[in-house]
Every structure is written in structure tokens, then in C-alpha cells.
# Entry
Amino acid sequence: MLKDHQIFRKLNDAPAQPRLSRYPTKVQVKAKRSFHSAWYTGNNWLEYSQQEDAAFCYPCRHFTLPGSNPDKAFTAVGYSNWKKAMFKDGGFSSHCKSDCHVEAYVAWREYDKKDSRPSILQQLNDERSRQIQQNRQNLGAVVDVLKYTALHRLSLRGHDEGEESLNAGNFLDMLKLLGKYNDNIGKKLADLPDNAKYTSSDIQDEILSTMAKMVKTDIAEEVKKSGEFSVMADETKDVRKIEQMSIVLRYFLAGTVYESIVGFVPANVLTADGLSGELMS
# Structure
């Protein structure tokens, strides 16, 4: 049996098709003849062994079906009749028409297709990654709408936030508008259950609270960089008649004076000691 490392490779390796500037010659019918690399064109199954100076058939060597009778010239001995190699009724052409080769070639291509398809685990991972990306996009849309309404001081909720409402409030209406131009967002708003849409009032409050903490963190960093700051506070009642104190930090940074509000504090004790205690805490 032929032992040539050049062509007896692993099953997943491609056919051995070395392209040499010059191939060994043989005297055949009173003429010097040799293998040609141009023969690979149109014959992707063709292999050449430099050790044997002979051609072989890759699919017939690896994918011959049980019970078939492969041509030993292309599987074990090696084909080297270069004169007839490209004859229409002989050589490579005749081999390609044999039933054994056709069956082996089909099995080879099917194996390649199977090998190129991702595994079940890979498909599951890809699907999970796709879902994660979609969920991030949907949550990103919710956050962006909340950020927009906060920056422009727009109320979020409407009196009627049902599916058929003509005015469900700025928040839901803006999300629906985005959904008209983004299939993913629109599908999530239409198909997901209410507890998975991230549009409830509790979710809105939680996201806004997170945004507020991020803003406060940035303000704190700026105050630290400025080195000096003053505190301004004012006590007033909100719409629910609850006493509260607004707190503003005033500081100078990079040539600019900033006045940044950091929040409202319930004013339970309206004496000087009570208000100053809240400030210090």
C-alpha cells in the first residue's frame, strides 16, 4: 500500500495539489511527458504525489462507499499515463464518469457541508448572543427615551396607557414611534408580556434613579477637582404640601462657574439646627 505523507493526510485536509515550476518527465510513446498543474482546474478532486510522480483521487481514497470497487490506479497505485490524462474518453474524464467516483464525490461534498455547519452548541450560543443583543437594544431605547424626557422636562405618563389609547403619554408614545422604524423594538412592544417590556412605572423610576446617581457621581468628581465649593439651599413645599429642601453645589472649574443641583431632602425639622443637620448629612 502506498505510504506517501503528501497525500495520505487527515480526512479534513484539502486534496494535495502541489504547484511545481517543473514536474518529473517520463518517456511515453517516444515523447517526454509530465504532470501539469493546469489539470487541477476543473478537477478539484485531483491529487498529485511527488514521491510517486502519480495522480490520485481524493474522494475515492477517503469516501468510497462500502461495496464499491474503486479504481486502484487512482486510490493505491497512482495514475501516471500523462498522454491520455486529458483524453475525452480516457484518463481523468473516464474516471470522473465512473459510478464509484460519482458516489464518493457526492459523499465528500456532503461531508464538507456537514463539517461547515456550526454545532448545536454553537447555534445555541449564537441564538443566545442574538437575544442578548436585542434585549440590550430594547433596554437602550427605554433609557434613551427616559433621558430625552428628563432633559426636556416632559412628563412620562398619560391618564390612559392602554393599547388602544390615542395619548398614552410621552414615554410610551415615543417608544411606539421608535418601534415604527425598528422592527426589533416594535416586535418587543407588541409581543412581549408587560413584565418583560421594561416600560412599567417601577422600571421607569428605577432607571431614572440610576441616572440620577450617575449624574451625582460626575458632579462629585467635578467638585473634588475644583477644590473649593459653596452650598446653596432653599426650603419649600412640593405639590403634595410636603416640606423639602433643595441643595445646590456652586463651584469653579476650568474657567467656568457651575451651579449643580444634587437633589431634594425632606425637611422634617425647619429650625436652623434641623436644616443644617440635613445639609451636613
Summary: The two ends are 89 Å apart (CA to CA). The beta strands are 25-28, 31-34, 46-49, 54-57, 229-237, 243-253, 256-266. The mean pLDDT is 86.
